[in-house]
Specification:
The protein is an alpha+beta fold. It contains six helices and ten strands, in the order H-H-E-E-E-E-H-E-E-E-E-E-H-H-E-H.
Length: about 200
């Protein structure tokens, strides 16, 4: 039985495939949406007569050498005010940055606080509805990302245990796990449909 992508993912299928061709393995993503009606069959949710919004984001595993290059780009003056990002590896190293915040780097467990001692939280989906405050059902935050990264690299470790010690398969998984970063990038220009994807393709 053939399994297909959901309609929302179809909207960015070519962009995700371009990342996969680079050897960046995508885990989660969504396209940017600017004021779509809440009754839209693909993106809509919540009460009628409302409007919904989304910031584009993507999460992926990336080889260390590629991550160093991408990190430099994310820290550049013409990019850093448009994105927030989190990155972690199997060794527990963690980096994060966003608009108006300094680069945060650590190898310590998360205490739920971000750069400059503030909580690092980004709403990536929200809706405006008559008679209601803004509703934000989807956020990406530092503390959750760090917990998920630890779990994700633990899954790689469990996968390696399936194979015999010294086998080529076990060696490949261990080497890949040790040389990979899990990265989440949020593009704040939700009115710029291709903003995130142009950044990652250049």
């Amino acid at each position: 039985m053939e399994r297909s992508l959901n309609e929302e993912t179809h909207a960015i299928k070519s962009q995700l495939l371009s990342l996969i061709k680079k050897g960046w393995w995508t885990v989660a993503s969504q396209p940017a949406i600017n004021g779509v009606r809440s009754t839209d069959p693909v993106y809509g949710w919540g009460p009628k007569n409302g409007f919904v919004f989304q910031k584009a984001f993507v999460e992926f595993f990336i080889p260390s050498s590629d991550w160093e290059t991408l990190k430099s780009k994310l820290e550049s003056e013409d990019v850093k005010e448009n994105v927030s990002w989190y990155a972690s590896n199997a060794a527990g190293q963690f980096h994060a940055a966003g608009p108006n915040s300094a680069l945060l780097s650590s190898s310590l467990p998360s205490n739920g606080r971000g750069a400059n001692g503030t909580s690092s939280t980004n709403a990536v989906t929200w809706g405006a509805f008559p008679g209601k405050e803004i509703i934000t059902p989807t956020i990406i935050e530092e503390v959750s990302f760090r917990a998920w990264a630890e779990e994700a690299f633990g899954i790689w470790d469990e996968w390696g245990r399936v194979y015999e010690k010294g086998s080529k398969s076990k060696k490949l998984i261990e080497e890949t796990r040790q040389d990979t970063w899990l990265v989440n990038i949020i593009h704040h220009g939700y009115i710029e449909k291709e903003g995130l994807w142009e950044l990652l393709s250049s």
